[in-house]
Backbone:
């Protein structure tokens, strides 16, 4: 019989290795997007020079941009109390969904053949935030994973925020927040080779505000994105499949939209499938990816699962079906 201390130490070392590799992967991906952003700024210089050469009173445009920025700030201040509060009917519906799934889950894991299992507590979790901003931008970028909880249920509290400035021609303000939780499928659960199926249960509550007011002489834009990713890692393997669910994506050069993001349940686009060998331990990584991007004064991109009571991205359980 294997020493439990040896098993725990091996698990601890593996999650540390996977965390380090994933952070390096994120750094490389963000470096690629930074280069594209730099080229967009270079393109914007030509348009700005053309605008200066035209018979346009730029001081009037500057006044308009400042007024637009103040208006956007006032709108957000007015909206926040309503957006931050999870509606009572949503909370009741969430409780009903969770209670029903508790009953279904008990039936599944009580299967005498024991092919279904439920992981009800995260093993670990972490996060990373990257920013990109124009050199001369007076905009804002901010991101955070907030508090992390590993059990009862496991949750993260991510936030991504970007505000633009100026006419937008060379302005670029982007935030990427990625927060993740690790669940472990013990090797004792997988007693034969075959196909493993994994379903995270999501309990998502948050809100967003996205606004851009582009005009004839400006280049303004705002965009928010929430994606939930699932990755399944075999021990000591470089490759891990991605399964991605785009929960919410809103953006445009002319947009003024605010809403809540409330979802409770499973989602087929985030179902994980992996071929496994008998006796393998598998790591399940559930990732919340938030992106906020804004160009130009009055452009806001605010995606928040942190501010306000009951707002969070929770994973009450991960249900698995073994070969």
Residues:
């Amino acid at each position: 019989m294997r020493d439990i201390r040896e098993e725990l130490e091996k698990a601890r070392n593996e999650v540390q290795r996977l965390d380090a590799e994933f952070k390096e992967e994120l750094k490389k991906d963000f470096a690629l997007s930074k280069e594209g952003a730099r080229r967009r700024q270079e393109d914007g210089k030509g348009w700005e020079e053309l605008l200066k050469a035209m018979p346009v009173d730029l001081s009037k445009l500057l006044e308009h941009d400042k007024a637009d920025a103040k208006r956007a700030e006032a709108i957000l201040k007015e909206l926040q109390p309503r957006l931050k509060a999870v509606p009572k009917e949503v909370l009741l519906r969430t409780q009903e969904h969770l209670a029903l799934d508790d009953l279904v889950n008990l039936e599944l894991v009580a299967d005498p053949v024991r092919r279904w299992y439920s992981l009800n507590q995260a093993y670990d979790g972490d996060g990373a935030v990257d920013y990109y901003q124009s050199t001369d931008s007076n905009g804002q970028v901010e991101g955070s994973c907030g508090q992390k909880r590993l059990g009862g249920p496991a949750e993260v509290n991510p936030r991504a925020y970007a505000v633009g400035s100026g006419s937008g021609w060379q302005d670029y303000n982007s935030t990427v927040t990625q927060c993740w939780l690790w669940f472990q499928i013990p090797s004792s659960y997988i007693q034969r080779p075959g196909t493993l199926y994994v379903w995270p249960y999501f309990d998502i509550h948050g809100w967003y505000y996205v606004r851009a007011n582009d005009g004839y002489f400006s280049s303004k834009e705002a965009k928010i994105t929430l994606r939930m990713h699932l990755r399944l890692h075999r021990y000591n393997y470089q490759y891990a499949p991605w399964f991605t669910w785009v929960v919410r994506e809103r953006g445009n050069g002319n947009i003024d939209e605010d809403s809540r993001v409330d979802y409770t349940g499973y989602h087929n686009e985030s179902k994980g499938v992996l071929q496994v060998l008998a006796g393998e331990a598998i790591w399940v990584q559930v990732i919340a990816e938030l992106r906020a991007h804004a160009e130009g004064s009055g452009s806001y991109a605010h995606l928040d699962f942190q501010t306000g009571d009951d707002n969070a991205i929770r994973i009450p359980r991960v249900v698995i079906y073994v070969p």
